[in-house]
Amino acid sequence: MSAAGWLQFAALVAVLLLTAPPLGRYIAKVYGDERRSPGDRVLLPVERFVYRICRVDPDREQHWTRYALSLLAFSVASFGLLYAILRLQGVLPLNPVGLPGLDPGVAFNVAVSFTTNTNWQAYGGEATMSHFSQMVGLTVQNFVSASAGMAVMAALIRGLARRQARTVGNFWVDLTRGVTRILLPMSFLLALLLISQGVVQNLNGHTVATTLEGVRQSIPGGPAASQIAIKQLGTNGGGFFDMNSAHPFENSTVVSNFVETWAILIIPFAMAFAFGHMVGDRRQGRAVFGVMFAVFAFMAIGVMSAESAGNPRLDGLDVDQTVAADQAGGWMEGKESRFGPAASGLWAAATTGTSNGSVNSMHDSFTPLGGGMALLHMMFGELSPGGVGVGLNGLLVMAILAVFIAGLMVGRTPEYLGKKIQAPEMKLVVLYVLAMPTVLLGFSAASAVYDGALSSLSNSGPHGLSEILYGYASTSNNNGSAFAGLDSSTWWYTVTMGIAMLVGRFLLIIPVLAIAGSLARKPAAPATSGTLPTHTPLFGGLVVGVVLIVAGLTFFPALALGPIVEHLSL
Q1: Is the peptide bond prior to 248 cis by the omega test (within 30 degrees of 0)?
Q2: Which of 144, 225, 361, 402 would bridge 201 by S-S if both were Cys, CB 3.0 to 4.6 A apart?
Q3: Could you count the other beta carbons within 10 Å of the beta carbon of residue 74?
Q4: So where are the chain's domains?
Q5: What is the tens place of the pLDDT at every residue in 327-347?
Q6: How far apart are the first and last CA of the chain?
Q7: Whole-angstrom Cα distance, residue 227 to residue 244?
């Protein structure tokens, strides 16, 4: 990897280290148990008005079951409203180019996708969605689906921090505060910055222009910057345009590229510090951050190095000057010349380590090693650093599993933050760990033998299998990025991937809330000489080891038949 690539990585790390801790403190105050929090003077009247409209008592907390039912009811209502908007798009306002309503199968897939914070796109943005659908449908879901994930995170932390409590918070309050106090202010500032870099923000339709060659061209417009801001900060990832963040109207300059990469990562990393503040032990937050960062740094450097090295088949061959120039600077196929291999690899690691899914290059064109590492990063469960809220949830579940394993090794009842980890919690942990691999591997296996699914592939052999694995890894982990060689608009993929998104969202969220409720009821056991410290590098290494073992045992056979054998064939 070049010196410029190392400099980009170092600059991103430095900015994250400067901004994540203070944002984490702020998030902890927003979700904390204190009576007052930042922004009350301005935002509290607005929030109280929302509570009155929705008939919510903000002072009444909920048992975990009611919290989960509230989240599910909200998600069902969100799905229904978004599905109706997409189907009726042709008769709704703000449709300057007269786009028709979506096909039922595609509308179902998109509604599930944005409701679950996946933002998988089986459509072309500017050629399919009206401004009304983009703003009132998709952008609204970008805010509320991200805030719902953050709310679950807050509930889990309360379960760990509280002693003999029967409640884990109020979903409606957590949902509202996540939008008004975190996502909206940050998105507004980021949108202004993106507009300053040339990202489009208007209500125009297509502008017809004549090129220097005399060809007439339709240039799309629309409210892109406001959607791009929340798509990155909320780890949503759905692009306004078909080419996502590789499109110059979404990502215009190296500055916007750097800022958007930071925006993907900042809230998930800040959640680790918020965790430390909310449980009253900042060392715990630093330990969680260390695990997140170690895995992310390894994957980022790996993908950047693989893409900067290029294809070994071209070394020493008599190739034309264009290919030789590309190979000298790294593998440029499918990448924007504005960014190059290193920045593309860094973005790929950021978007697959979170539940973001946006792309500034085509992952299907990556080297087998680079694309395989991006695929593996999702298979880890997207906990390095993961999506807003849900990434921290996944890492804390792995920490609980690591504590349990360590307890078995030394013959003690395992404890995490003073809470005993017993059979009920471990059953829920196992359900959490198995849900995503079940749909990922199950649907991938079915697609590998079903002729209707195989006809959607643009490649056969190991790369074709990688396309299938990537598609289901992306949807079952609520990521949304894709190997573009897979045509996911057929009925098989729209339906099965819709199911994968639902499982990857709700069969993970519900066990997390159940764990929160179970732990909240327990008293805190005092620490003794036999208590395993959970804030040390040793414990962080144990958690990383558990993640690697779980992912390795589950996915290595599939990876061996896909990206690994493809890489070895080079």
Answers
A1: no
A2: 225
A3: 18
A4: 3-208+217-568
A5: 555 678 888 888 989 999 999
A6: 20
A7: 11
